[in-house]
Amino acid sequence: MDWAPIRKPPEVRARANLRDYATACRDFDWTTARSAVSGLPGGGLNIAYEAVDRHAEGPRAGQAALRWIDTAGGVTEFTYADLAERTNRFAAMVRDLGVRQGERVFTLLGRVPDLYVAVLGSLKAGCVVSPLFSAFGPEPVRQRLALGEATVLVTTSSLYRRKVRPIRDRVPSLRHVLLSGAAGEGDPPALDPLLAASSPEAQIARTAPEDPALLHFTSGTTGAPKGALHVHDAVVAHHVTAAYALDLRAGDMFWCTADPGWVTGTSYGLIAPLTHGATLVSDEGDFEAHRWYRVLEQQRVTVWYTAPTALRMLMRHGGLADRYDLSALRFIASVGEPLNPEVVVWGEEALGLPVHDNWWQTETGAIMISNFAGEDIRPGSMGRPLPGIETGLLRRGPDGRALVTEGRVQQVTEPGEDGELALRPGWPSMFRAYWNEPGRYAKTFADGWYLSGDVARRDADGYYWFVGRADDVIKSAGHLVGPFEVESTLLAHPAVAEAGVIGKPDPVAGELVKAFVALNPGHDATSELASEILAFGRRALGAVAPKEIEFATQLPHTRSGKVMRRLLKARELNLPEGDLSTLETADAAR
Ligand code: ATP
Ligand code: MG
């Protein structure tokens, strides 16, 4: 199905940070872009200084840096000056504990203010910080603490008892556990008294741009999670890409719904809005349609960065958006999974603004491909490369990955041809290592390109279209199809709420396309409906339409919201289920 482009009216273009794509690309270079950050007084670069102190020393000192909504709905505000002081104390405390620059501080916290303080305070101390998603169980926590050789962990009493105490003696590097909030009998020390006793004066470590800063684990969609290491220089890319791809600017009320346990929640849910002098909205609570609309309305959110799963759920709730005043919203963006065109268009109808899809990865540290505020949207497309980002599509071999012959790769040239999406390294937030896995890191490069593992197509105007994961693409009766294309088609059927598609070995076709489908409320999982959906798929997709359909009450998701197709496949074929550390536990029981 072809979707008409969404045209941007002149007044929308005129106010956008990126008004003219061709000019922005032509004029861009990373050296000049670097002037967006101030650097430490006296030399060096530290993300936390760019995010907090630079503003706290100036006219923004009294402006809200963080508006935090607790689970009960109460709102607490922290100014840039508040944040500067508490992060100073945190950095001083870490140093007083004898923790040295470069050592790893982990957090295992819900979205509470101390999470933001611990991340920024650790950066000030020159430590490498790794925020973990608080819903991880003990084993995933242990894996990551051990892989990253954690020295310090900041968590809460309840999370400590349930998830850390059982594994603590298996992480020998872990010298200090500190508790946000109250500490009970027999618990490790509480953070508050330690912070109160520490110096409020700034003594930011003189980190250099290439010093390590952030350790982020990938979502584990395709296998065991990898720890991607980023350096302080990444802040240049966080800042610039937020301006271009999220249209972010000083004074915005910015809500990124991703948890800082994922790279989106740190690059854009923490660092970028602060470097811009915006106010960051953080909601401790989980997704609930009314709650989310209330946050948008009550906080007067201007820029909203969220994910396809959440948008699809809001879409299922029909006209709910009409009951809320969303007039403050200026820009909506989505990341993490393919965004089906229905959602882009629904945004315009129900929320008053179309949704801008963008693409990037834990490894890239910042948005690489995007739809822009001042440019037309092609629904279903991820958009075009950011200024300063060189992308390529590489010809693929039989394993689905880029074909490397004697060290060389070949780019596909024809519009519409698919290839492995590759990026030319050189932007500041590019990862510098998979922590303690040099072999795995080296394998992601060939012939001067970083190989993303995703397959895409490019149209004649340079817009990129997601096809699938390179090792996910299904070969059925001589045809190649990405699960996403099939899923996207099925989503257009009114009964289908969500779809996960896999290739299943078949003696005749090579692989047969099988779809797992969750239904919208009001539809029953009958064989008539199954036949109807299969016929619907055949009409739209022809030869690559699903031949089998199975209804499921829900599909397995990673905790960052992606459909875990490898698990659907493993279960279908009775293969080992592999690393399930990032599986959303509600899905774990079938
Ligand atoms: P792992 O690398 O551990 O298998 P992961 O790749 O899902 O997990 P992330 O780095 O969190 O881990 O996610 C990046 C991936 O998410 C991309 O490579 C891509 O497959 C998918 N993705 C992100 N944004 C989009 C988008 N706009 N459209 C389609 N896919 C997207
Ligand atoms: Mg990945």
UniProtKB/TrEMBL annotation:
Has the keyword Ubl conjugation been applied to this entry?
A: no
The record's annotation in Pfam families points to: AMP-binding (PF00501), AMP-binding_C (PF13193)
The stretch of residues making up the signal peptide is none
Gene3D superfamilies per record: 3.30.300.30, N-terminal domain of ligase-like (3.40.50.12780)
Which Gene Ontology terms describe the biological processes this protein takes part in? Answer: acetyl-CoA biosynthetic process
Record GO terms (molecular function): acetate-CoA ligase activity; ATP binding
Provide the Gene Ontology terms for cellular component. Answer: cytosol
Key words of the record = Acetylation, ATP-binding, Ligase, Nucleotide-binding
Top EC class, one word: ligase
EC number(s) per entry = 6.2.1.1
Query: Could you tell me which residue ranges the AMP-dependent synthetase/ligase domain spans?
Result: 55-435
AMP-binding enzyme C-terminal domain boundaries = 485-562
Q: Does the keyword NAD apply?
A: no
Record-linked PANTHER family: ACETYL-COENZYME A SYNTHETASE, ACETYL-COENZYME A SYNTHETASE 1
| Name of this chain's protein | acetate--CoA ligase
